[in-house]
Amino acid sequence: VYPTADLHTKVIEIAKEITNKPLSALLAAKQVIKENENLSQRDGVALEREVFYPLYDTKGVAEGVGAFVEKRKPNHYDL
Q1: Cα-atom radius of gyration of the chain, to the nearest Å?
Q2: Are 60 and 29 a contacting pair, CB within 8 Å?
Q3: How do residues 15-25 score in pLDDT, each as one tens digit?
Q4: Model-level pTM?
Q5: Could you tell me which residues come within 8 angstroms of residue 2 by beta carbon, excluding any fewer than 6 positions away?
Q6: Residue ranges of domains in the chain
Q7: Helix extents (H) in the chain
């Protein structure tokens, strides 16, 4: 929760953070959020596994892990 005077600035700041993430991960997260609403915990976890597991073999994960190891910000723009 942010004061009204700071809200616009914070929204822009958060939006910039989100746009620096790999698109495939964002789309997967959106899918899981939308589909998970009416699922049991067990089915929700199964859905997450089904949707997110394939992402582990993507360039985005390789870049993220590489950036972490090299102590730098990931560059997802080239993916």
Answers
A1: 16
A2: no
A3: 998 888 888 88
A4: 0.70
A5: 10
A6: 4-69
A7: 4-19, 23-36, 41-52, 59-69
